[in-house]
């Protein structure tokens, strides 16, 4: 049996000790589906699987709460930074609870432990000569990326191309606070001397990537950083909201969030147990898995490991760095301001169970390339894979036992056809274990669906509902097919547990499966055994899934599609009072301008993509016309004269 968890969970001699972390979600907003699948949900599936395998697993996460974005959000909502953190920490915790993400501990970074551990690592780096001082020309702003022209690059890194930026390199920089062009200022800061640690980092990377399950994108991103040559990395910021720098010459500064935030894994564990060092200073006994989206890779594969290597305190470093690509929404990106996409706090209001959400997100998990959430596809996968394939097989197997054999599993006399099915099922089970061991979560899910497909075909060919009405031989054959099928259904309940925990529990309850079944089937190399022997009494069987109707899906698609950009310009309104008020003065509508800036960027990207694909001129022309109209509206929202309409000749040149 899989033992009940006894907290605190600590490494054990003779066990596989697995420490699982997911990138700490930033506290200042509500996570969308892409955020959820990229880190916490993927890590949850693997942690659940590890527990089924009998590993000693600790899964920790928490909200990342310091930094500029929190200060900006507090200003926007008229709250203090701490109030913003308290508010959104609770929002995050509630969302993950609804999605059944089973953390062993979900903490936060605004704690005394965070200050103690971060400052300790800082002093160790300082004492060993791995910190530098330098003057920085800085802006607190966003602007256009000098590398890829993304319009909302932050003053330290572009979220689109991932390149590091000095804020003074941004084109058209704009202050986040007052929307004016900021003034360049000089400030003395501390830097982590990455070049000095580069040789040690490369030796560690060679060992870790060679022996661990690093995703291809994690390896590629890390290689590109190291190949381009490491540069000193600033670890301090001129802010108030953050972990204080303890050095007397920098007492007016805090640690930069990307030095500070990964240390949150350690401090969150320290808030879970005062024996946290048994996990984090124990590389001989502990395997560390980091889950994240690809934009977080360099901080977990270069910056954070260098901080720990430089501290020279026997820290546990990542063995398996698991990074996803991006999940988009339909044919665009998630956008809270434009009401585009499903955010975590909205999912339960759709009436669709959290297990179905989990299934679909994991089915299209962006493992090798970006993928896109689609309402129509979600309905299709629910109705075909869950309802008609998986649910149909499990329900039929249980119903045959109830209806034909008075809820008792019949005796089984295996023939060649039954053994063929068991061989297929056994092969898929071994594939599932092999894939899950290597964190191929999406591919492993397909093994579950393949088993139920084999099972449905097996039932269809053998027709137990007909044979039960025949002679003694036929009735025995009906019993064998039913008994084999219900045992396969029981296996599926276990394999489903990491993906759909409620459905898994429901199946086991309906089949009255013994508690030991969850461990028996996934231990070792994984052998399919008979868990429900002849004479086993099952419970009440009922359907597991409901059909998603096209009307329901169309309604949801419309609801989460955002407001289409109107051709009518919003009139300027009298601004509300208070720090969270939106500005709409002298013909300037700041909120509208922000929305339209995003829309212009996305439409421009669409035009460039179509041109790159050499689409038909009429198609490109239609999209160019939309782009021009958006730019015109943007000019009006910014209080400027609209740009003159382009001539047909210029439109042709654009195409």
UniProtKB/TrEMBL annotation:
<dbReference type="InterPro" id="IPR015413">
    <property type="entry name" value="Methionyl/Leucyl_tRNA_Synth"/>
</dbReference>
<keyword id="KW-0436">Ligase</keyword>
<dbReference type="Pfam" id="PF00458">
    <property type="entry name" value="WHEP-TRS"/>
</dbReference>
<keyword id="KW-0648">Protein biosynthesis</keyword>
<keyword id="KW-0030">Aminoacyl-tRNA synthetase</keyword>
<dbReference type="InterPro" id="IPR000738">
    <property type="entry name" value="WHEP-TRS_dom"/>
</dbReference>
<protein>
    <recommendedName>
        <fullName>Methionine--tRNA ligase, cytoplasmic</fullName>
        <ecNumber>6.1.1.10</ecNumber>
    </recommendedName>
</protein>
<dbReference type="InterPro" id="IPR023458">
    <property type="entry name" value="Met-tRNA_ligase_1"/>
</dbReference>
<dbReference type="GO" id="GO:0005829">
    <property type="term" value="C:cytosol"/>
</dbReference>
<dbReference type="GO" id="GO:0004825">
    <property type="term" value="F:methionine-tRNA ligase activity"/>
</dbReference>
<dbReference type="GO" id="GO:0006431">
    <property type="term" value="P:methionyl-tRNA aminoacylation"/>
</dbReference>
<dbReference type="InterPro" id="IPR009080">
    <property type="entry name" value="tRNAsynth_Ia_anticodon-bd"/>
</dbReference>
<dbReference type="InterPro" id="IPR029038">
    <property type="entry name" value="MetRS_Zn"/>
</dbReference>
<dbReference type="InterPro" id="IPR001412">
    <property type="entry name" value="aa-tRNA-synth_I_CS"/>
</dbReference>
<dbReference type="GO" id="GO:0005524">
    <property type="term" value="F:ATP binding"/>
</dbReference>
<dbReference type="InterPro" id="IPR014758">
    <property type="entry name" value="Met-tRNA_synth"/>
</dbReference>
<dbReference type="GO" id="GO:0017101">
    <property type="term" value="C:aminoacyl-tRNA synthetase multienzyme complex"/>
</dbReference>
<keyword id="KW-0963">Cytoplasm</keyword>
<dbReference type="InterPro" id="IPR033911">
    <property type="entry name" value="MetRS_core"/>
</dbReference>
<comment type="similarity">
    <text>Belongs to the class-I aminoacyl-tRNA synthetase family.</text>
</comment>
<dbReference type="InterPro" id="IPR009068">
    <property type="entry name" value="uS15_NS1_RNA-bd_sf"/>
</dbReference>
<keyword id="KW-0067">ATP-binding</keyword>
<dbReference type="InterPro" id="IPR041872">
    <property type="entry name" value="Anticodon_Met"/>
</dbReference>
<dbReference type="Pfam" id="PF09334">
    <property type="entry name" value="tRNA-synt_1g"/>
</dbReference>
<keyword id="KW-0547">Nucleotide-binding</keyword>
<feature type="domain" description="WHEP-TRS">
    <location>
        <begin position="592"/>
        <end position="648"/>
    </location>
</feature>
<dbReference type="Pfam" id="PF19303">
    <property type="entry name" value="Anticodon_3"/>
</dbReference>
<dbReference type="InterPro" id="IPR014729">
    <property type="entry name" value="Rossmann-like_a/b/a_fold"/>
</dbReference>
């Amino acid at each position: 049996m899989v033992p009940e968890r006894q907290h605190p969970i600590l490494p054990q001699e003779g066990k596989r000790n697995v420490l699982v972390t997911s990138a700490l979600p930033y506290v200042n907003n509500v996570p969308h589906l892409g955020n959820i699948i990229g880190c916490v949900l993927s890590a949850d599936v693997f942690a659940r699987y590890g527990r089924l395998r009998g590993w000693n697993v600790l899964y920790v996460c928490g909200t990342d709460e310091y930094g500029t974005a929190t200060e900006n959000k507090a200003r926007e909502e008229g709250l203090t930074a701490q109030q913003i953190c308290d508010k959104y920490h609770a929002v995050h915790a509630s969302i993950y609870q609804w999605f059944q993400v089973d953390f062993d501990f979900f903490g936060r970074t605004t704690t005394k432990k965070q200050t103690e551990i971060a400052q300790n690592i800082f002093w160790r780096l300082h004492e060993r000569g791995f910190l530098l001082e330098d003057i920085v020309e800085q802006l607190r702003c966003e602007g256009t990326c000098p590398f890829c022209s993304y319009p909302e690059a932050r003053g330290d890194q572009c979220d689109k191309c991932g390149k590091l930026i000095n804020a003074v390199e941004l084109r058209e920089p704009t202050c986040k606070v007052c929307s004016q062009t900021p003034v360049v200022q000089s400030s003395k800061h501390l830097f982590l001397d990455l070049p000095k640690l580069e040789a040690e980092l490369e030796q560690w990377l060679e060992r870790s990537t060679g022996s661990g399950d690093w995703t291809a994108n994690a390896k590629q991103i890390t290689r590109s950083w190291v190949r381009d040559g490491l540069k000193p990395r600033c670890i301090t910021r001129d802010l108030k909201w953050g972990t204080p720098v303890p050095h007397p010459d920098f007492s007016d500064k805090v640690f930069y969030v990307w030095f500070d935030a990964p240390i949150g894994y350690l401090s969150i564990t320290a808030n879970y147990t005062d024996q946290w060092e048994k996990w984090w200073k124990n590389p001989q006994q502990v395997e560390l898995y980091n889950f994240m989206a690809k934009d977080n890779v360099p901080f977990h594969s270069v910056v954070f490991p260098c901080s720990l290597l430089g501290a020279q305190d026997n820290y546990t470093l990542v063995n398996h760095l698991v990074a996803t690509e991006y999940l988009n929404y339909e044919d665009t990106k998630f956008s809270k301001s434009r009401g585009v996409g499903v955010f975590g706090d909205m999912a339960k209001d759709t009436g669709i169970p959290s297990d179905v959400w989990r299934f679909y997100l994991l089915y299209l998990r962006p493992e090798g390339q970006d993928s896109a959430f689609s309402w129509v596809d979600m309905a299709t996968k629910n109705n075909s894979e869950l309802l008609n394939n998986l649910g149909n097989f499990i329900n039929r197997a249980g119903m045959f036992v109830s209806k034909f054999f008075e809820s008792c599993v019949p005796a089984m006399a295996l023939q060649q056809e039954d053994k063929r099915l068991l061989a297929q099922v056994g092969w898929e089970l071994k594939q599932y274990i092999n894939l899950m061991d290597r964190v191929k979560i999406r591919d492993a899910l397909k093994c579950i669906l393949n088993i139920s497909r084999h099972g449905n075909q097996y039932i269809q060919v053998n027709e137990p509902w007909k044979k039960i009405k025949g002679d003694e031989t036929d009735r025995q054959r009906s019993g064998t097919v039913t008994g084999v099928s219900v045992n396969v259904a029981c296996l599926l309940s276990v394999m489903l547990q990491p993906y759909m925990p409620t459905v898994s529990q429901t199946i086991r309850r309906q089949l009255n499966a013994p508690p030991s079944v969850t461990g028996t089937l996934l231990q070792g190399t994984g052998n399919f055994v008979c868990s429900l022997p002849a004479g086993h009494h099952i419970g009440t069987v009922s359907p597991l899934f409901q059909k998603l109707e096209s009307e329901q899906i169309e309604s949801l698609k419309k609801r989460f599609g955002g407001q289409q950009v109107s051709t009518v310009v919003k009139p300027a309104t009298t601004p509300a009072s208070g720090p969270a008020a939106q500005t709409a003065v002298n013909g300037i509508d700041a909120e509208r301008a922000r929305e339209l800036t995003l829309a212009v960027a996305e439409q421009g990207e669409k035009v460039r993509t179509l041109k790159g694909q050499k689409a038909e001129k009429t198609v490109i022309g239609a999209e160019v016309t939309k782009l021009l109209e958006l730019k015109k509206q943007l000019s009006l929202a910014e209080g400027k004269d609209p740009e003159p309409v382009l001539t047909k000749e210029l439109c042709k040149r654009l195409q």
